[in-house]
Request: fold
Amino acid sequence: MTRYFASPPASGPSEQGCAESAAFFAPLREALPSHRTRAARVGPHALSDRELLSAILASHDETMADAGAGALCARYENLERLLAADLSQLAACAGPEAALTLKLAHELACRAAREPLFKREVLSSWTALVAYLRVRMAGRGREIVRVLYLDKRNRLIADEALGEGTADWAPIRPQVVIRRALELDSTFLIVAHCHPSSDVTPSQADIAITRELDVAAKAVGLGLHDHVIVGQGGEVVSFKQKGLL
Reply:
């Protein structure tokens, strides 16, 4: 898997917690303003991942921004895991206000990726669909299920989280999915869930519940277009393309 962060020096602390990491990555008070200044002068793309995080955190507390960025880099192996982390987990490293800013930035990125799905037929926008599911679901430590409800022209009506489970299981309740589809006057469905590992191979349970949902949808005149699994590193598998639906 591609790593976004450079590993801490060998002489540094082990990744046993944010408190140790924050102590090791001592604040660089003089360097902090330069991150934001350089971003304003040549663009945010010029900053490294850690510098970008530090510049974001500096809007809340300049004196601890670099320590917080270092703690986040030490705890999370890549940006996907960082942005997918719970608010409380991020707050333990960077403080509650900075954590909220990071979650708001992630939500903004998710909505930007989802926006094209409202403007065109989803089935003709596979690339846009996959891009959205990756930014929304990759990096999570537990499986989560989302359902995309489409109208009769295959345009997105709603995208909703159905349930969150454990590291290797998440609930998909066909009756809940179908009831919500009828409430929204939806005609077609796309189900997606994430695998916290990089293995996107559908399990026998995944296959069984997909077939159950397909039967339940057809019974009330709805169509299940696909079931998509998103892996840890953004790997994606389609049940439709695999001939499983």
